[in-house]
Amino acid sequence: MTDTVKDWVLPNGFTFIASTAGMYGSWAKATDPVTAARNAVRNNGSKYPDFVCVWYGPSETTYINEMGGLQYHADTADKMVPIGFFEVKKNSIKPSKDERYTHSEFMDENMKNFVRSFERWNEEQKQ
User: Fold this and answer.
1) Cα–Cα distance measured from residue 88 to residue 94, given in angstroms and rounded to the nearest whole number
2) Could you read off the pLDDT of 20-47 as tens digits, one per residue?
3) Beta partners for 118?
4) Do 90 and 48 contact (CB within 8 A), yes or no?
5) Predicted local distance difference test score (pLDDT) of residue 25
6) In the chain, how long is the greatest CA-to-CA distance?
7) What's the pLDDT band for 5 if we cut at 50, 70, 90?
8) Is 35 exposed, middle or buried (0-12, 13-18, 19+ CB in 10 A)?
9) Which of 19, 29, 78, 97 has the most CB atoms at less than 10 Å from its CB?
10) Do the beta carbons of residue 46 and residue 39 sit within 8 Å?
């Protein structure tokens, strides 16, 4: 971690990172998942309801790219944790049950991706 203390970084160097869903979105990092989700929606213009992806991972190597996708280093994929895909309303946050993409689908897909990514990286290191 750098010498600069960032208010979204936990003492262990990890953070919660949230990204709003859709073509034009926003993202935020925080020390808790609710603040990250709320700030991502606020940064997206506070349009309710909004859908938000939330993950937990190393702050230094985790970010949202220009296309709104999660980026992380493959060597830290085993440390990444999907928190969930949530529907955020003005006064509530709940796991998405939207037919287009559910909280369960998000969790399954992300866990598989993190495992595959780390396994590929691990295999490349052996060569």
Assistant:
1) 7
2) 977 778 999 999 999 999 999 999 998 8
3) none
4) yes
5) 84
6) 52
7) low
8) middle
9) 19
10) no
Q: How many helices (H) and strands (E) does the chain have?
A: 2, 7
Query: Cβ distance 33 to 56 under 8 Å?
Result: yes
Comparing C-alpha atoms, which of 28, 36, 88 is closest to residue 64?
A: 28
The dihedral through the CA atoms of 57, 58, 60, 61 has a sign that is negative
Q: Is the dihedral of CA 27, 29, 32, 38 positive or negative?
A: negative
pLDDT band at 4 (very low <50, low <70, confident <90, very high): low
Q: Tell me what percent of the chain is helix, strand and coil, each rounded to the nearest 5.
A: 35, 30, 35
| 3-class SS of residue 78 | helix
Residues counted in the chain: 127
d(CA 98, CA 108): 16
> Which residue from 30, 69, 33, 31 is spatially nearest to 54, judged by alpha carbons?
33
Which one, of 15, 3, 18, lies nearest residue 51 by Cα?
18
